[in-house]
Structures are given as structure tokens and as C-alpha cells.
Amino acid sequence: MTWPWPSGNWTITLDKQTAAWARVHAAERNMSLSRFVDANVFLYARDEKEPAKRARARDWLEVLWREERGRTSLQVLSEYYVNLKRREFSGLAPDTAWAEVMKYLAWRPQPSPA
């Protein structure tokens, strides 16, 4: 197996059983890593004017939901809510915009540092 290292990659030889164990546990470690999502990603996922960015943002959010790794902050959700209501973006009614924001409360948003 090869591991990245600041001074360059290094390689060691493992027996099959140990190598299999290492691959499984490396995958588990990667799956446990949370990913912070900014308001722009949420907005691009709804933006019909930018189809390429919309598709990429939707794909990314789908992965984060499926792997339960998405995280955000209350400040980001507030920014998302305000922008959803803006006429030049989508002009959603406040109740509709709030319903869109509420689904991301499942990501346990953190308060922003003071």
C-alpha cells in the first residue's frame, strides 16, 4: 500500500489480510469526515441560470446526504434563507424559503464563532 506523506509517498508491503483490513478502516475514516457547506453551494443547487454549477452542487449535496457527512452553520443557513427570498434569485415566499432551510437543520448546524 502507498500512503501520502509530506516528504513524498512511502510504500510498505502487507499480507493480504492486513491490506484488506487497512483498506476497510481507511474507508471508514474517510466516511466519518464531515464536509462544511457554504450558502453558495445551497444556492447553486437551485440556480437554473447556471446549469453546470447546479448539477455539480446537487450531486455534492446528494453525496453528503447519503453519507451523512454534510455540516453547515447557523450563519450559512441564515444567508441561504435571505437569498432564497430575494427576487433576483428565486423570490420564494418566506414560508417556502424557511421550509427549504429547515431540512438542513438535520445537519446539526453550529453557531458561528464570535
Structure notes:
By secondary structure, the protein is mainly alpha-helical. It has one domain. Helix content is 53%, strand content 7%. The chain has helices spanning 16-31, 39-44, 51-67, 74-85, 94-102; strands at 2-3, 10-11, 35-36, 70-71. Strand 1 (2-3) and strand 2 form a beta hairpin. Helix 4 packs antiparallel against helix 5.
Secondary-structure blueprint:
Blueprint: E1 2-3, E2 10-11, H1 16-31, E3 35-36, H2 39-44, H3 51-67, E4 70-71, H4 74-85, H5 94-102
Parallel strand pairs: 3-4
Antiparallel strand pairs: 1-2
Helix pairs in contact: 4-5
Kindly summarize this structure in a few lines:
The protein has 114 residues and is mainly alpha-helical. The chain has helices at 16-31, 39-44, 51-67, 74-85, 94-102, and strands at residues 2-3, 10-11, 35-36, 70-71.
